[in-house]
Amino acid sequence: MPPDAARRSDRSRRAILVAALELVEALGYSRLTIEAVATRAGVGKQTIYRWWSSKGPLLFEAFVELGPIGQYPPTCGDLAADLRLELRVVVEELGERRFDQVCRALLHEARDDLLALLLTPRRLRLEERLRAAQRVGEVRLEVDVAVAADLLLGAVHQRWLLRTEPLSGQHADAVVDLVLRALRG
Known about the structure:
The chain is mainly α and about 180 residues long.
């Protein structure tokens, strides 16, 4: 029976994505090469270039497919606890070396749209939770939940991006406490 080319291609593609993430974590973006990814994945460079034009799109796809985005904690029903947990997950994601290296590399590759694309699901989840809190009276009805979600995530992203202070769960909790005081009136 002849080998299944589709299965082999999927196996090669996954090996390439894993290799790209492992190498960017170990070497950083500037030292990452397509040659190194090909060697680690056990494929030829031409296989990689057939699917991706450069290391930026390769890393983006690897991160979206294999990265931590999309892993959401369950809600517990308490708004403050839910928001603290959500921001702590963001802090943990941003603190992972692989996430940090890939995000910074991709920011370099696509400055305008990257964070919006990667983090929009997280922002939408926060908006949904805040709307639910409005319905039960935990948040004032006149609060613009989109702006509130920006306030919550913006403070964490700003600290991560500029590295002005250490990013920590305590920082996430302080952001939630401050924003909730404003949202509750």
